[in-house]
Amino acid sequence: MSETFIERKVSTLVSQGFDVVVGASSFGDGATRTGARLMPLTPWRHPVDSTRRLRTMGVGTAARVLASASGGRSKAAVLAAPLTAVRADLIHFEYSGIAVAYRAVLDRLRPARVVVSCRGSAELIRPVVEPSRRAALVDTLRAADSIHCVSQHMAEHLRRMGVTPGKVFVNRPAVDVDTFARLHRATPRDTTQPLRILSVGRLHWCKALDDALAAVALTTAAGVPLRYRIVGAGPERERLAFLISQLGLADSVELVGPLPADAVRAELANTDVVLLTSLSEGISNSAVEAMSAGVPVVSTRAGGMAEAVIDGQTGLLAEIGDVAGISRCLVELASDEERRGRLGRNAMEAMTAEFDLSRQVRVFADEYRRLLESPAHRTSTGPNRATAP
Description:
Elements: H1 4-15, E1 20-24, E2 37-40, H2 47-57, E3 65-68, H3 76-86, E4 90-93, H4 96-101, E5 113-118, H5 121-124, H6 126-129, H7 131-143, E6 146-149, H8 152-161, E7 168-170, H9 177-181, E8 195-200, H10 209-221, E9 226-231, H11 237-246, E10 253-257, H12 261-269, E11 273-276, H13 285-292, E12 297-300, H14 305-308, E13 315-318, H15 323-334, H16 337-354, H17 357-372, H18 375-381
Parallel strand pairs: 1-2, 1-3, 3-4, 4-5, 5-6, 6-7, 8-9, 8-11, 9-10, 11-12, 12-13
């Protein structure tokens, strides 16, 4: 449970009266502050031991919602034991890859209703590079009661894969907008200083950070002084470090490494542009956070990004792989302080209206209640079974 957006969602559900148990292989420090009961999955190698541990934790009776936030390494049949022992009314697999790991035992989780989230690479990339995964994913989604997509683009992608549209609902990523809005700088940047560019994310090929570096090289060649910071860790670090050297960018580009959430917010408070050059995305959480902080975003049209960044209104878009186009966006923003400010303010307004955490959790809560109040659920659980409020 390393993602702060899951922690925010869980905290809000708990505050609304849902009884939440989170099953995960590991937990970040923020998990203990959510108010949910935490259920470590990986160490439980045997079903009998799993049940005993659950009873010790006081969760051997029915829990109202189980959010399965990250996968363990045990076999699915073994990991099913703690999930069934909780006797949840509803199980939400926050990533489809975790649900796929459980697909052989999803029926054992009944009568709980099953929700699966589809967020990005597990649906858009892995089925392409690993064809057998496509069949497993479709089979898993067909067994689910409800499928959450982070964008309309994702929903259309699943429809083309053969998933029943009636099961799908779109609920875009969200942030605590007020928290990020406080990072917004109302005073103009000192135009005598280099343009400050930031990217936040995993150092993975799908983020196309090599395109970002190439675009930054073109931008510096156009006479724009800049400082580009890349926050994150991943398998591409060595390659990116080599590219930085080869492109002559060592004095202007820094691979910062991974940072905690507070430090990332500090980076946002001191940047002029956030750059996202991905080949594939659901909707980038880092872009949504930047826009909530009033920082203009330059992004490719990957996945559902055009649903979050409205070109020319709340940010600037370029085609995937269009290094020259990405550079043109950076050059334009470097020379136009007023436009950067306008894009940032428009982005903040859009995030408040459409991407605030309270709206996102309300959509989830409504979907949970709809599932729990359906005739199929009442028949399977019996008339005295408690449901989520």
